[in-house]
Amino acid sequence: MDPYSLAVIPGGAVSRLGEIGGVNWHWLLSPDTVVDRVSGVVADLRADLSDDWERYIADRALSGTPVYHVKQISESLTGRVEIEHLSENTLGSLNPNQAYLKIKQLIDWVGALVILTIFLPLFGLVALAIKVDSSGPVLFRQNRMGYRGSVYKVYKFRTMKFSAAAGDEKEEAITKAGDARITRLGQFLRKSRIDELPQAFNILRGEMSWIGPRPEALVLSQWYEAELPFYRYRHIVRPGITGWAQVNQGHVAAVDDVLEKLHYDFYYIKNFSPWLDVLIVFRTIRTMLTGFGAR
């Protein structure tokens, strides 16, 4: 049986499935159509389907064939939650598992303590290298929007040339591809993600997690909230050093790209679990080895 073959019942919002690659879609023409060797049937279960199609769905379920709602299968295949209208997204179901939220914070705290203990000598070497490479402070500090909308100060190793803030604050907060402000050492620190390690202090303080939606600069977060009505819901979990959006999309700043990132953030929140976190850890290791998404 081909694991990527799915039959699609016409009606409702199923036409967008054709945009998802890697699947053999069998578009059913009538309830009398017989399709062999498929892994399941997909339908828009919220659409006003005919009685014949309703019977067809019931028969497939009774025969042991999995029947999927179009939104369910779309999310599982793309790793994104579609967000177009507030009423369509059942935001109540996006509340994370509170028990795992507490367990995860404990794991984060222990992990941060271990990392800081083991890598303290590395911190000293990186600090010395930064001072030799360019003038300015060793650490970069910036106000970020965090858990439940609280503002906190993030700590990272400085990777850009130090200069007094000038011009548009929003533009200053955006890191562009090939940004001329990034130092020679900064390029390496960003690609290896070593610049992120001081955020272990933020984790110890309960402000961040190892895994979660990436925190944005306060000025950018306020801009995104004004442009995207769903944006602030990503603060329902602690922001992370790595996350589902980072390993799938990389670094983005433009509003259109941030909307795309929200699809991944909401998928993470909706499927908040240790299993998804483990998957993100493995993908993060791959990201560190390839430098994917670094700027």
Overview of this protein structure:
- This protein starts with a strand and ends in a 5-residue tail after the last helix.
- A four-stranded parallel β-sheet has the order 2-1-3-4. Strands 5-6 form a two-stranded antiparallel sheet. Strands 7-8 form a two-stranded parallel sheet.
- It has eleven helices and eight strands.
- The protein has helices spanning 51-62, 70-78, 98-118, 120-133, 169-173, 184-192, 200-204, 218-227, 244-249, 255-270, 274-290, and strands spanning 5-8, 24-27, 40-43, 67-69, 139-145, 151-157, 209-211, 240-242.
- It has two domains: 5-78; 93-290, no CATH class.
- It is elongated and about 75 Å long.
- 29% of the residues are buried.
- It has 295 residues and is α/β, with parallel strands linked by helices.
Neighbour order of strands in the largest sheet? 2-1-3-4
Q: What does the radius of gyration come to? A: 23 Å
Report on the biggest sheet: 4 strands, parallel
- Strand-residue fraction? 5-15%
Q: Helicity range of the residues?
A: 40-55%
- Silhouette: elongated
Distance between the termini: 43 Å
| Oligomer category | single chain
From N to C, what is the helix and strand string?
EEEHEHHHEEHHHEHEHHH
Number of H- or I-type helical stretches = 11
Task: Tell me how many strands there are.
Answer: 8
Count of the separate structural domains: 2
Mean pLDDT: 85
Please state the structural category. Answer: alpha/beta
Note poorly predicted spans: 86-94
